[in-house]
Amino acid sequence: MVQQVTSGIKISVETTFEGTFYKNYKVHFAFGYKVTIENQSKDSVQLNSRYWKILDALNNTEIVEGEGVIGQKPVLKPGESHTYTSGCLLTSPFGAMEGYYNMVNFTNSKKFKVIIPTFKLSAPFAIN
């Protein structure tokens, strides 16, 4: 698990290897990740959008941007947390993801970024 706190918002990420499969005559490696967003600040906040940079060992990079997370824009009061799971496909057994959430503080209406710590994706069979 990797964790990081930005502006009182703690992000924790756990990853899993889901398996391999063929798509368009190429092998793909499926990974899942579980993100917990915990509000350790004294203000209520809302997650508005996300930015992901997905990298694999073959130098492929994919950028994913969008509203909310899995169709939600969670509001977190002080002490509350929100957990969701998602996944990605790589064309190699190794990779990494990094990014940030765009959030707004309801107390002062200021927008701010919360860093998602870089986390590694690796198929267990490919590790020495």
UniProtKB/TrEMBL annotation:
InterPro entries: ApaG-like, ApaG_domain, ApaG_sf. Residues 3-128 form the ApaG domain. This is Co2+/Mg2+ efflux protein ApaG. The gene is apaG.
